[in-house]
Amino acid sequence: xxxxxxxxxxxxxxxxxxxxxxxAVELGAAGATVYxxxxxxxxxxxxxxxxxxxxxxxxxxxxxxxxxxxVAADHLDKTAVRDLVDRVADERGRLxxxxxxxxxGENLFEWDTPVWEHDxxxxxxxxxxxxxxxxxxxxxxxxxxxxxxxxxxxxVTDGTAEYNRDTYRVNFFYDLAKTSVLRMAFALGHELGPxxxxxxxxxxxxxxxxxxxxxxxxxxxxxxxALAREPHFAISETPRFTGRxxxxxxxxxxxxxxxxRSLSSGGLARVYGFTDLDGSRPDxxxxxxxxxxxxxxxxxxxxx
Length: 304
Known about the structure:
Layout: E1 9-13, H1 18-29, E2 33-38, H2 54-64, E3 67-72, H3 78-92, E4 97-100, H4 120-145, E5 152-156, H5 161-166, H6 172-192, E6 198-203, H7 210-216, H8 239-251, E7 262-264, H9 265-272, H10 284-292
Parallel strand pairs: 1-2, 1-4, 2-3, 4-5, 5-6, 6-7
Helix pairs in contact: 1-2, 1-8, 3-4, 4-6, 8-9
């Protein structure tokens, strides 16, 4: 059976692990051809020094039912990004979905550290990785996306516009990075909407990425063991939940109604009816406001 995205071409920039990998796999499960990029390959690890690779992600996309194509790329390298887009244009002649999920800042920010005490070089590199990479990728990829009407751009961030407006996020550099990506989607919505395409910002909830699981010393199979250390982790979700949100948006003929808006995986699950891999629908951002940030005991009843 063909999926709803059969014949569509997607580029997931920053798909080595985490949300990018989950998004790529779910786009593949919906039938898309997915170009996946990142700096970690089977021949060379990035500064993260992690085992996940873009080739692994591409294999997962293909196993899910799509066609995964791995391309090693540093999205701060303008020539590399231009060559990547040229390759997609030469091989497919179109781009229907662009996902800007490039991040790379986990090892660069310091929790609750004011700007004058934070390592300046690390903070500025975080901004380059989180903001400049998205701008470079959009600059080169959007002309290809606009060749055919109905294209979708997804800017992946951390936090909804409402939550980040009212909440200090970690430190100056992290807060600025994640808020900037939200604003990118708003600006792109104004530039793409009149030209027949849609741009949105999308945030996962508390995502059980490979790095997060490692931080708690658990695997996906026994993730609930981490609740003894952090009870609020009960609201967490898999990267595939965010992937299903993107796949639902990409398959929606009326996706333009969301143009320029800030969206969340949990909010879109209510709109489209998809679930996480365990059949639940975690609504992390509502939970964070109403339970965790409010100082209440962990209780996900009514939130997943």
